[in-house]
Write a structure and sequence with these properties.
Elements: H1 2-7, H2 19-31, H3 34-49, H4 57-63, H5 67-84, H6 90-108, H7 111-116, H8 118-135, H9 143-151, H10 155-173, H11 176-179, H12 182-209, H13 213-226, H14 233-236, H15 240-247, H16 254-265, H17 274-291, H18 298-304, H19 307-327, H20 335-351, H21 357-379, H22 398-402, H23 404-416, E1 426-428, E2 434-436, H24 442-461, H25 463-479, H26 486-498, H27 505-525, H28 529-544, H29 547-552, H30 554-567, H31 575-590, H32 605-611, H33 613-616, H34 622-637, H35 642-652, H36 654-669, H37 677-697, H38 702-730, H39 738-760, H40 764-785, H41 793-806, H42 814-829, H43 837-853, H44 863-877, H45 882-900, H46 905-924, H47 933-948, H48 959-962, H49 970-985, H50 991-1003, H51 1007-1021, H52 1034-1053, H53 1062-1072, H54 1081-1087, H55 1092-1103, H56 1106-1110, H57 1114-1125, H58 1146-1155, H59 1180-1201, H60 1211-1216, H61 1220-1224, H62 1230-1244, H63 1256-1271
Antiparallel strand pairs: 1-2
Length: about 1300
C-alpha cells in the first residue's frame, strides 16, 4: 500500500505527470488482485475523471512504453472528444487534431512501427473519426484532400488512410443514427458523397500501381464500405469494375475482390444498367469456372480447405444470393444467360451441402426467397380468382421448366438437411446416445420454420417429385437393414411432417399411409431400444402433423391413439413425454371425434378411454399424467350434452378424487399426516391434475371445482400457518428448507387452480358471489398476516386476474384488497432492487388491473394512500430491471390517461404533474433506462399535450409564493420549468440548444416527429453516445418487424400447408358443431376473420354434396359469389368488398372441406312437395339424390341472399318516404324484391355465375323458388301458400 500512497501524487495536476509511476499503477491494476487492485482502480478512475487529465495525454503517449498505459491515455482523450468537445476552446480543439494527425503519421510512415503498433494505431483511427463527426466538414474542410495527398507519399500511410476512410463510411452510413442528430447525419452523408471523387481516384491509383498485397487488401476493404452508396457512374463508367474482375482470380486478393463484387451485384437500380450487370455476371462466371471447376465437390473441398478457402466459399454464397435477389430476372431471357444462370445455381446448390451452419443459412435464406418467387410466377392463380378455395389451372410454367433440375436438387437438400422441429424431444446427444432434449435451440427452430416454408413451396411446384424422393429415401432406410442411420431417418421424417397440407387430399392420404406403414414395418424389424425410440419419435411426429387426415379416417385415428398409449408405457427417455405431447396435439385438432359414437363402435372413444384410464396412465410420471388429463379435458369440452359431459368429468376425476378424499379422511383422524412429505406430494399432484383439466375444459369444470373448493381452502390455510410457524422459529433460512418448499408448492398450486378457473369462468356473477367472498380471509387475510418470507406472489397474481375478470362487479372489495396487500408488499419490495422479484412484478400487475378495471376506486383513497400509489409507480419505473420498469411506465401511462379524462384531472395534476415530469426526464436521460425510451416519449408527449390543451384548470405553480398571475398560462410556466430543469442538469448544452429543444417538445404535435426530436436532444446531452443506442429505435424496429410479420403471414395464408395450426383448428372446431345447439356463430365469425356467412355457406354446399351432384362451378362459387353476397347493409361498388383479409381463412376452410367425410345428403322431411326440375335422365336413388341436392341448393342460396344489400330500414319506412325502391316495386315488398333482383343481377356476370352448367329449366326453377322464399320473408305478406 506504500506504493499506492506514493502513486497518489498522480492526482496533483500542478506538476507534470510521472509517466513511470502511472505505468506502474496501470500494471498494478491489471496484474494484481484484492485490495491492491481495487485501490489502483479507484486512483486511476479519479485521474481519468479529472478535468485536466486530457491535457496530459500527449506527454503520456510520448513517454509511455507499455500498451496498456497508452490505451489508458487514449481512453481519456476519447472521453473528452465524445462528451466535452464542444466546450473546448477552438485553439485546444485544433491542438488535439494536430496532435492526433501527427501521431498517426509518425507511426504509419515507418513499416516496422506500423505493423508492431497496429492495435494502437487502430484505436487512434477510431478517435480521429470521432473528431471528424464533430468538426468535419464545416470546421475541417481540407480533411479528405489532405488525407489523399498524404497517402501518395507513403504506402503504409496510404494503407492506414484506407482504414480511416472505411471507418468514416461505416460511422456515417451504418452507425450514424445512434449518436448523431438527424441534421448532422444528413450533412456528413452529403459531404462524403461530394468528396468521393478524390477517394475514388486514390483507390484506382492504388489498385493500378501498387504491388503491395496488404495495401491492395486495405483498399479493397475500404471500397467495399463505399460501393453501397456511391454514384453509379464511378462503378460502370470507370475502370473500377474491370480492375475488380481482374483481381478476383488472384488468390491473394480473391476474398476482398469478391466482397466488392458482392456489393456491386447486390445493388438494386434502374433498367438502364441491366446490360452492365449481365456482362459483369458472365465474365465473373467464366473466371469462377477456372478458379473452381464445376466438377469439384464443394462440400468436401470446404472440409479440407484452409481458412481463406473456406471464407471464399462463404463469400461466394453471399455473392450469388445478393446478385440473384436483385437481378436473376435479367439472366432468364437469352440461352446464353440461362446457361450462366444454371451453372451459378448449381454452384449454390453444392454450397448448400456444406456442413458449416452459417454458410448453409446464407444459402437457405436465398432459397426461401427464390422458391416462393418461382411458385408465385408459375403457379399463381388468376387475379380474379386469387382468393379461391378451389384449385385453378396455372399458366404455362416457363420458370418452373427452366429451373426444374435445380428444384429437384433443392428438394434433396431440404430433405437431407431438414432441421429438428419443436415437437421432437428424442434426440441424439454429443456422445451418440439417444436422450430426451432438455433445452430448446431457438436457432434450430427458426431454421426449421424457414426450411419448412421452402419445402412446402417446392412440394406445390411438383408434388410427384417430392413424394418420389421422400418415399425413395424411406425405402433406402428400410433396405439398409442394420446400417440405417438415425440422422437420415430423422431428417426424412421431419421433412415428411413439414409438408402437411400441401398435397391434394387423395395424394396426401396415399402418401401418409405408405409412410406410416413403412415406419411401423421398420419399427417391427429393428432391434435395440435406442433404434426403436428414434422410430417411435418419428412416427409420433409425423402423425401429429396430419390432423385433417386423422379427422377424416376414424379407424386410423383410433389406431394412432392406441399406439400412443403403447408408447406411454415405453420407459426410454423422451418417448413417454413425446407420446403425451402428441396425444395433446391430436386432442386439440380432433377433440370432437372422440366424443361422437363412430360407426361400428359400441360407445364413444372417450368413454372407452375412461374405462381403461388407470391402466393407460399406469407408467406415466406425474407431469405426464397432468398432460394426459389436459388432453382428456379437451375431449370433454367437445361434448355438447351437459349430462354426458358431467358424467365423463366425474369418471375422469375419480382417481384423483379418491386420493384426495383418502388423504382428508386420514387427516381428520390424524392431522400430523399432512406433514409427511409423501402426503404433501400427493396433494400437490392431485391439485395439479385439477389445474390441467380446468385449463383445457374451462367453465364445465364447475362441478369438480365446487367439490374440492372448500376443502382446498382449508388445506391452504393449514399449510400457510405451518409455513409461518416454521419461518418464525427458524428465521429466513427456514424458508429454503425442503419441508417448507413442499408445503409452499401446495399453496402455489391451490392459487393456480383458483386463478385458472377464474380466467376460464363464463359466469362472472357466480364467481363474484360464491367463490370470491369465501377466499378473502383464507387467502387475502392470510397474506396480510404472514411474515414476508411466507407470502406468495401468486396471491397478487390471483387477485389481479379476478379484478380483470370481474371489473366493476368487484369494486366494493378493492379497498379490502388494497388494505391487505399494498403496504405490506411495498415494505417487502422497496428495501432493495433484488429481493422478492416475483412480488414486484405481480404487485404492479395487480395495481395495473385496479387502474384499468376499477379506476374510480382511486377516488376513494386518502391523499396519503394516493401519494403512496404514485410513489410506488415512480419507484417501479426507476427500477433497473427492464420488466419492472416497463410495467411501471405502462401503469403510469394508463393512469395519466384516465385522470386526464376524469373530473379529478386538475386536482391530480396540481399535486403530481411536476414530480412526474421531473421523474420521467430523469429516467429518460439515464443510460440504464434506454429500453424504455418509447414509453418515456409517450409519457412526455402526453404531459405536454395535457398542459397545452388546457385540461388543467388551475395554476401548476406555487400561487402563494408567486401569485395567481405570475404566468399567463400553465403552458408558459411548464416551458420555463423544463428549461430551468435541463439547464441545471446539462451544463454542456448552450441556452440556445435547450430553448430550441423545449420549444420543439411543446410545438411538435405529431408523436413520431416528437420522438425524433427527443432522440436528437438525447444525442446532444451526450449521455448516450458511449453506448449502444439501439433501444432508442426499438419502437420503429418493432413496428417494422410487425409489418413484415403481417405481410409474411398474408403471403403464407394464400398457400395451403404453410399455416397449419390454431386458425385451422378453430375453424374446424366451429364447423364441426354446425348440427348441434352449441354451434357458436360468433366464434365462427372470429375464426373466419369476419366472413362467417361465406365460409358457412360454402361448407354447407360442400358437405351436402350439392356441388358435385349438380355440377356447380366451385371455383366461381368460392372465389367471388359468396364473398360478394356476404355483405349486408352495404352500398356502392360491390367488388370493393373482395378484400385481402379474406385470404386469412382460405387455407383453413380448404383443410376443413378436404377432411369432411361425405355422410350423404340429409333429407328435409318437413318440406312438402318436390322441386320442379329435370332429373338428367336418372332414376331410382340417383334421381332422389339430385332432387334433394336441388332442394338444398334452393334453400341455402335463398338463405344467403335473402338480406343482400339491405338498407337498414323496413319496408314501411321506404314506402312512406317514397324511396326509389318503393316506387320501382310499386310499394310491394320493396326490400325483399331488391334482395332477389340484386343477387340475380350479380349472377349475370360471368365470373360470378356458378350455376352456368345447370340446364335452362333447372336455373329457371331455382330462380322461381328463390323468389317465392325470399318474398315470403316479408311479414306483411300472406306467406302461407308460398311457404
Amino acid at each position: 500500500m506504500a506504493f499506492l500512497d506514493q502513486a497518489a501524487k498522480l492526482l496533483d495536476f500542478s506538476q507534470p505527470v510521472d509517466v513511470p509511476l502511472l505505468e506502474s499503477t496501470v500494471e498494478l491494476m491489471y496484474n494484481s488482485s484484492g485490495e491492491q487492485r481495487a485501490a489502483a482502480e479507484r486512483l486511476l478512475l479519479q485521474f481519468q475523471e479529472h478535468p485536466e487529465a486530457w491535457s496530459r495525454v500527449d506527454g503520456i503517449l510520448n513517454a509511455a512504453s507499455g500498451q496498456t498505459t497508452k490505451f489508458f491515455a487514449l481512453q481519456i482523450l476519447e472521453n473528452v472528444i465524445r462528451f466535452k468537445w464542444g466546450a473546448l476552446p477552438v485553439e485546444q480543439r485544433e491542438g488535439i487534431k494536430n496532435f492526433l494527425s501527427g501521431l498517426i503519421i509518425r507511426f504509419t510512415t515507418d513499416e516496422a512501427s506500423f505493423r508492431q503498433e497496429a492495435t494502437f494505431i487502430n484505436k487512434m483511427n477510431l478517435i480521429l473519426v470521432q473528431v471528424l463527426k464533430h468538426d468535419w466538414p464545416t470546421k475541417w474542410r481540407s480533411f479528405v484532400p489532405d488525407l489523399v495527398a498524404a497517402s501518395k507519399t507513403s504506402e503504409t500511410l496510404c494503407e492506414n488512410s484506407m482504414k480511416i476512410l472505411r471507418l468514416l463510411s461505416e460511422e456515417v452510413f451504418d452507425f450514424s443514427r445512434v449518436d448523431l442528430t438527424q441534421a448532422k447525419t444528413k450533412e456528413l452523408k452529403a459531404s462524403l458523397n461530394n468528396e468521393f471523387q478524390l477517394i475514388h481516384e486514390l483507390c484506382v491509383f492504388v489498385l493500378m500501381n501498387t504491388r503491395k498485397p496488404d495495401l491492395v487488401r486495405a483498399t479493397l476493404d475500404a471500397l467495399a464500405a463505399y460501393l453501397t452508396w456511391v454514384p453509379l457512374g464511378y462503378i460502370f463508367e470507370t475502370s473500377l469494375l474491370e480492375i475488380l474482375l481482374q483481381l478476383f482470380p488472384q488468390p491473394a486478393f480473391r476474398n476482398q475482390a469478391l466482397q466488392c463484387l458482392t456489393e456491386i451485384g447486390s445493388l438494386v437500380i434502374g433498367p438502364e444498367f441491366n446490360t452492365h450487370f449481365e456482362t459483369f455476371f458472365k465474365i465473373f462466371m467464366t473466371q469462377l469456372q477456372q478458379v473452381v471447376p464445376p466438377t469439384v465437390n464443394i462440400a468436401e473441398a470446404y472440409e479440407k480447405g484452409t481458412d481463406e478457402q473456406q471464407k471464399f466459399i462463404q463469400n461466394l454464397a453471399l455473392f450469388f444470393t445478393g446478385y440473384f435477389r436483385a437481378h436473376i430476372s435479367l439472366l432468364e431471357g437469352t440461352p446464353e444467360n440461362q446457361q450462366a444462370l444454371q451453372a451459378a445455381l448449381e454452384y449454390l446448390v453444392q454450397i448448400s451441402f456444406v456442413e458449416n451452419l452459417e454458410v448453409f443459412k446464407t444459402c437457405l435464406d436465398y432459397w426461401n426467397f427464390f422458391v416462393p418467387d418461382v411458385y408465385a410466377s408459375t403457379c399463381a392463380m388468376d387475379p380474379a380468382l386469387v382468393f379461391s378455395f378451389a384449385p385453378t389451372t396455372p399458366q404455362p410454367p416457363r420458370r418452373k421448366a427452366l429451373f426444374a433440375s435445380i428444384l429437384t436438387k433443392l428438394r434433396n437438400v431440404m430433405i437431407c438437411r431438414m432441421a429438428k422441429p419443436e415437437e421432437v424431444i428424442v434426440v441424439e446427444d454429443d456422445n451418440g446416445n439417444i436422450v430426451r432434449e432438455t433445452m430448446k435451440d431457438n436457432d434450430v427452430l427458426a431454421q426449421y420454420k424457414t426450411m419448412r416454408e421452402t419445402l412446402v413451396y417446392l412440394c406445390h411446384l411438383d408434388h410427384e417429385d417430392t413424394e418420389h424422393q421422400m418415399l425413395d429415401k424411406l425405402r433406402q432406410q428400410q433396405q439398409a437393414g442394420s446400417k440405417w442411420t438415425w440422422n437420415g431417418l430423422n431428417t426424412l421424417c421431419w421433412a415428411i411432417g413439414s409438408i402437411s397440407g400441401s398435397m391434394q387430399e387423395e395424394q396426401e392420404n396415399r402418401f401418409l399411409v405408405t409412410v406410416i406403414r413403412d415406419l411401423l414395418n421398420l419399427c417391427e424389424v429393428t432391434r435395440g431400444k435406442d433404434n426403436k425410440a428414434v422410430i417411435a419419435s418419428n412416427i409420433m411426429y409425423v402423425v401429429g402433423q396430419y390432423p385433417k387426415f386423422l379427422r377424416a379416417h376414424w379407424k386410423f385415428l383410433k389406431t394412432v391413439v392406441n399406439k400412443l398409449f403403447e408408447f406411454m408405457h415405453e420407459t426410454h427417455p423422451g418417448v413417454q413425454d413425446m407420446a403425451c405431447d402428441t396425444f395433446l396435439k391430436i386432442c386439440h385438432k380432433c377433440r370432437r371425434k372422440f366424443v361422437i359414437q363412430q360407426p361400428q363402435e359400441r360407445e364413444p372413444f372417450v368413454s372407452e378411454l375412461l374405462s381403461n384410464l388407470s391402466e393407460t396412465i399406469r407408467s406415466l410420471q406425474p407431469h405426464q399424467t397432468h398432460s394426459f388429463y389436459e388432453s382428456v379435458g379437451l375431449m370433454l369440452g367437445a361434448e355438447a350434452e351437459v349430462t354426458k359431459r358431467d358424467d365423463y368429468l366425474n369418471r375422469l376425476m375419480t382417481p384423483p378424487n379418491a386420493t384426495w378424499q383418502q388423504i382428508l379422511q386420514e387427516a381428520r383422524a390424524r392431522p400430523e399426516v399432512l406433514k409427511e412429505q409423501a402426503v404433501i406430494c400427493s396433494i400437490q399432484n392431485v391439485l395439479q391434475t385439477n389445474v390441467s383439466v380446468a385449463s383445457s375444459l374451462g367453465q364445465p369444470f364447475l362441478p369438480q371445482f365446487k367439490l374440492i373448493f372448500a376443502d382446498m381452502l382449508q388445506v391452504y390455510k393449514l399449510y400457510s400457518e405451518l409455513i409461518s410457524a416454521s419461518i418464525l422459529a427458524g428465521g429466513p433460512v427456514a424458508a429454503r428448507s425442503t419441508f417448507v418448499k413442499y408445503m409452499r408448492s401446495v399453496k402455489k398450486v391451490v392459487l393456480k387452480l383458483i386463478e385458472t378457473y377464474a380466467e376460464k369462468c363464463e359466469d362472472a356473477p357466480l364467481l363474484a358471489t360464491q367463490f370470491v367472498p369465501a377466499m378473502m380471509d383464507p387467502i387475502l387475510g392470510d397474506y396480510a398476516r404472514n411474515v414476508p418470507d411466507a407470502r406468495d406472489a401468486e396471491v397478487l397474481s390471483l387477485f389481479a386476474a379476478i379484478i380483470t375478470k370481474l371489473g366493476t362487479q368487484i369494486e366494493n372489495e378493492v379497498p379490502r384488497v388494497f388494505e391487505a396487500v399494498f403496504e405490506v408488499t411495498l415494505q417487502m419490495i422497496t428495501v432493495n432492487f433484488e429481493d422478492f422479484p416475483e412480488h414486484r412484478l405481480q404487485f404492479f400487475a395487480l395495481l395495473h388491473a385496479i387502474v384499468n378495471q376499477c379506476f374510480r376506486c382511486l377516488f376513494m383513497m386518502s391523499p396519503a394512500q394516493m401519494k403512496l400509489v404514485v410513489d410506488s409507480i415512480v419507484w417501479a419505473f426507476r427500477h433497473t430491471e427492464r420488466n419492472v420498469a416497463e410495467t411501471g411506465l405502462n401503469l403510469l401511462a394508463d393512469m395519466l390517461l384516465k385522470f386526464a379524462q376524469s373530473e379529478c384531472a386538475t386536482q391530480f395534476h396540481q399535486t403530481y404533474y411536476l414530480q412526474l415530469m421531473q421523474e420521467v426526464f430523469a429516467v429518460m436521460t439515464d443510460s440504464f433506462h434506454k429500453p424504455g425510451f418509447k414509453l418515456h416519449a409517450r409519457l412526455l408527449h402526453h404531459l405536454f399535450t395535457v398542459v397545452d390543451q388546457g385540461t388543467i384548470k388551475a395554476p401548476l405553480w406555487d400561487v402563494t409564493a408567486k401569485g395567481p398571475t405570475a404566468y399567463p398560462s400553465n403552458s408558459s410556466f411548464v416551458r420555463e420549468y423544463v428549461v430551468n430543469l435541463l439547464t441545471t442538469s446539462f451544463a454542456n448544452m448552450t441556452p440556445q440548444q435547450i430553448n430550441a429543444c423545449v420549444a420543439g417538445m411543446f410545438d411538435i404535435k405529431d408523436f413520431s416527429a416528437f420522438k425524433h426530436h427527443l432522440r436528437d436532444f438525447l444525442v446532444q446531452t451526450k449521455q448516450f453516445a458511449s453506448q449502444d443506442n439501439a433501444d432508442l429505435f426499438a419502437e420503429e424496429v418493432e413496428k417494422e418487424l410487425a409489418q413484415q410479420k403481417e405481410a409474411e403471414r398474408q403471403k403464407l395464408a394464400a398457400v395451403p400447408g404453410l399455416l397449419p395450426g390454431a386458425a385451422t383448428a378453430d375453424l374446424n372446431l366451429c364447423l364441426e358443431t354446425l348440427d348441434s345447439w352449441q354451434f357458436n356463430a360468433f366464434a365462427l365469425d372470429k375464426a373466419a376473420n369476419g366472413r362467417a356467412l361465406s365460409v358457412l355457406a360454402f361448407s354447407l354446399f360442400h358437405r351436402s354434396n350439392v356441388i358435385k351432384l349438380l355440377g356447380l362451378d366451385a371455383t366461381r362459387l368460392a372465389s367471388d359469389v359468396l364473398r360478394t353476397l356476404h355483405v349486408i347493409c352495404n352500398r356502392g361498388d360491390l367488388r370493393r368488398l373482395v378484400t385481402p383479409e379474406y385470404t386469412d381463412i382460405l387455407p383453413s376452410l380448404i383443410d376443413h372441406v378436404r377432411g369432411t367425410q361425405q355422410n350423404g345428403v340429409q333429407s328435409f322431411q318437413g318440406l312438402e312437395g318436390k322441386p320442379h326440375c329435370p332429373v338428367y335422365n336418372l332414376s331410382g336413388n340417383e334421381a332422389t339424390e339430385v332432387r334433394q341436392a336441388f332442394l338444398l341448393l334452393t334453400v341455402y342460396f335463398s338463405a344467403v341472399i335473402h338480406d343482400y344489400d339491405h338498407r337498414g330500414v323496413n319496408n314501411h319506412f321506404l314506402v312512406r318516404v317514397g324511396d326509389p325502391l318503393a316506387l320501382l316495386y310499386n310499394d310491394v315488398a320493396p326490400m325483399e324484391n331488391h334482395h332477389v333482383a340484386s343477387a340475380f343481377l350479380i349472377l349475370k356476370e360471368d365470373r360470378f355465375n356458378f350455376i352456368h352448367r345447370l340446364p335452362t329449366g333447372v336455373k329457371s326453377s331455382l330462380r322461381t323458388q328463390a323468389i317465392d322464399m325470399i318474398l315470403a320473408t316479408d311479414m306483411k305478406q300472406e306467406a302461407g301458400g308460398q311457404l
